[in-house]
Each structure stands twice: as structure tokens, then as C-alpha cells.
Amino acid sequence: MYESLARLHSNYYKHKYPRPRDTSFSGLTLEEYKLILATDTLGELKDMNKGLWKKLQEKFSARSPEEKQKAWAQSLSRPRT
């Protein structure tokens, strides 16, 4: 068992069976994976995947409490049609 773990650790199989190209099952290279997994790229992807409702919630929840109260009072003071 120790010998098997030592072979894995020393990249024995990587050298014994070299890959013709540095790609994976998705066809992306190592540099493309690094770009995708970068923190700023993940943040952008999360923002893109948010639905309209979540975006609106974040937009309006960023207000100060006074602004929220003022907007609430304005919505109550408007006559209903």
C-alpha cells in the first residue's frame, strides 16, 4: 500500500502515460481553468446568475433606514386608483 501511495505522490503514472495535450474532459487548458476559478471571475458569474428578484432586493436593501421609512411613507400617502 505504501508503494502505491509513493507512486501516486511521485507522479509515476503521469510520466509513464503522458498526455498528448494538456487538456481535460471539457477541453479547457490549465490557464483557462485558472481564469474561471479566479475569485473575481466567480463573483461576476454569481452576479450574472442572480435573478431579477434578487437584484431588486439587493438594490433596495442597500438604502439607509431613513430612506426606507421615507419611501414607505410616500407609498402610503399616494391615493389608490
TrEMBL record:
Keyword Metal-binding annotated: no
Biased composition annotated in UniProt, kind: Polar residues: 72-81
Protein name according to UniProt: Mitochondrial nucleoid factor 1
PANTHER family: UBIQUINOL-CYTOCHROME-C REDUCTASE COMPLEX ASSEMBLY FACTOR 2
Subcellular location: Mitochondrion matrix, Mitochondrion nucleoid
Highest taxon of source: Eukaryota
GO BP of this protein: mitochondrial respiratory chain complex III assembly
Disordered: annotated segments: 62-81
Keyword vocabulary terms for this entry: Mitochondrion, Mitochondrion nucleoid, Transit peptide
Listed GO CC annotations: mitochondrial nucleoid
